[in-house]
TrEMBL record:
Primary localization: membrane
Family annotation (Gene3D superfamilies): TspO/MBR protein
An example Gene Ontology CC term for this record: membrane
Protein name: Tryptophan-rich sensory protein
The keyword Isomerase appears for this protein: no
Membrane topology: Multi-pass membrane protein
Keyword annotations from UniProtKB, A to Z: Membrane, Transmembrane, Transmembrane helix
Length: 159
């Protein structure tokens, strides 16, 4: 692996880390602990572990496609949009306490990740496959988001 390629991988990992800061800036806290959640809610410890792994997979996926086509492509427009939507979810759900808007965000995010996967696939199949766990987790996240919103919408706990 060349030095520029390693630097680019570091850049993709840094971008993923920056997106991940939304989970640090907008923490669940006492408000989230007080919400009614379904019995199938993953344990709190699962979230940082799963997201940590997913952010590495996202970074490696982007880096693999970058090696083939560079950044000035439609696939990277989709990649950029999904990174912004990913960052916004924590702000909407935890920061603004708007699970309704967060649900809309996570649905659009999942669709954008699916489009990114489809755009990456013909360029580098491994890069596309690296996004599959992310897409699966977003399905769970969307279902959990919707369930929490519906279980709590009449309790006056949302902004």
């Amino acid at each position: 692996m060349t030095v520029p390629s390693l630097l680019a991988l570091g850049g993709f990992l840094l971008l993923s880390a920056l997106v991940a800061t939304s989970g640090i800036l907008f923490k669940p806290g006492a408000w989230y602990r007080g919400l009614r959640k379904p019995a199938w809610t993953p344990p709190n410890l699962a979230f940082p572990i799963v997201w940590g792994i997913l952010y590495v997979l996202i970074a490696v996926s982007g880096w693999r496609v970058w090696r083939e086509v560079g950044l000035a492509t439609i696939p990277f427009g989709l990649f950029a949009v999904q990174m912004v939507l990913n960052f916004l979810w924590s702000w909407l759900f935890f920061g603004r306490r708007r699970p309704d808007l967060a649900f809309l965000d996570v649905v659009v995010l999942a669709l954008t990740v699916a489009a990114t996967l489809l755009a990456f696939w013909p360029i580098d199949r491994t890069a596309g496959l690296l996004l599959v766990p992310y897409l699966a987790w977003l399905g769970l996240a969307a279902a959990l988001n919707l369930s929490v919103w519906r279980r709590n919408r009449d309790r006056g706990v949302f902004a």
